[in-house]
Amino acid sequence: RSPADGNLISGQGVFTLNASGNYVHAPGKFVAVVGVNDIVVVETDDALLITTRERSQDVGKVVKHLDEKKLKKLV
Hints:
The chain is mainly beta. It contains one helix and six strands; from the N terminus they run E-E-E-E-E-E-H.
């Protein structure tokens, strides 16, 4: 879903209010995005990533941390 407010949201029902430029991926969940801009939220079965669009390039550091801690099942 990509309305005029620039949000791209996948979920089991979506509500937005005063929010723009957000990316949220939470299949199977109701998603409400209220009063936030330019955030990234990605939900998987065993992890939740929350960052800003500006810092989304740092996700590689999370992957490196998981590798170092031998938590490869989360990668």
